[in-house]
Amino acid sequence: MPDSLVPVFQLYGETRQWPTPDLLHCESIPERSRRHDWRIRPHRHADLCHLLYLAEGLVALELEGGNRSLEAPQLIVVPAMSIHGFHFSPDTQGHIITLSRPLVERLQAHLDSQSGVLSKPDAHALGTTRHHGRIATLVEQIDDEYRHPALGRSHLLEALVEALTIETTRLAETTARQPSRARPRQRDKAREHLQTYQTLIEAQFSQQPSIEHFAEQLGVTSAHLNTLCRRLAGRSALQLLHERLLLEAKRQLTYTNLTIGEVAEGLGFSEPAYFTRFFKRLTGLPPKDFRRRQEADAAGRKQQ
């Protein structure tokens, strides 16, 4: 199927905006797939990576052109840009952990070659391997920390995901000699340009360079950059930059005591009023109201 015909989702089976200030999202498989009659049609993500832990049940998996039926326990890795779809049995139990691109890049910088497993679409049978218990425990800990935030939450979540990545690498090594039916497709030039553009965004978003500046760094025209972003990511080049700015704004409003003006200045806005208009246009809330809502939500979770 041509890339232009494959829908681009921003979360598991959804086109809605990334819903959290966190760099990862965790939910049970039944939470979302039950709403879709246990079937998630083939799609891809421009900037998200899935780690799907299947604890019980069956799944018909479509991954990068390969189709197979898998029985739990399994760990499925779906990198950014990989076309994937799921049809779960109604008795399925497990979790899906979605990693944002900034988090994947942090892992790649910190773990080097040990994070390579996050760029290889595949399914790994756990069975009686010694990795099963560790992976199940890590997924359970990530889910618990995600749902019950406490002091040091973001640091602990990243540490747990780092440990999960290492365990996944070890698991992949034990099955490396087994033939995989879900082989990654050859990267074309457009995908490479998109990946490079996203890396440039991660390094420079707080400076808010122009799209023309990004295009010059890539050696393409701004029109070409916009075209490939819309085709592969479903958003314009400017929207991708703004989404990264918004994510960082949400993180700082949620997890720091910086003033609105300090957040605005740190993200390259010339004045707080411009930042406030930007934030409200994309979220429907002024930054001050967003922060109050996050504080109220956190207080409510602590009382549960």
UniProtKB/TrEMBL annotation:
Residues of the HTH araC/xylS-type domain: 195-293
GO molecular function, one term: sequence-specific DNA binding
Pfam families tied to this protein: AraC_binding, HTH_18
UniProt keywords, alphabetically: Activator, DNA-binding, Transcription, Transcription regulation
InterPro entries in UniProt: AraC-bd, Cupin_HpaA-like_N, Homeodomain-like_sf, HTH-like, HTH_AraC, RmlC-like_jellyroll, Tscrpt_reg_AraC-type_HTH
SMART domains: HTH_ARAC
PANTHER family: ARAC-FAMILY TRANSCRIPTIONAL REGULATOR, TRANSCRIPTIONAL REGULATORY PROTEIN
Protein name: Helix-turn-helix domain-containing protein
Organism: Halomonas eurihalina
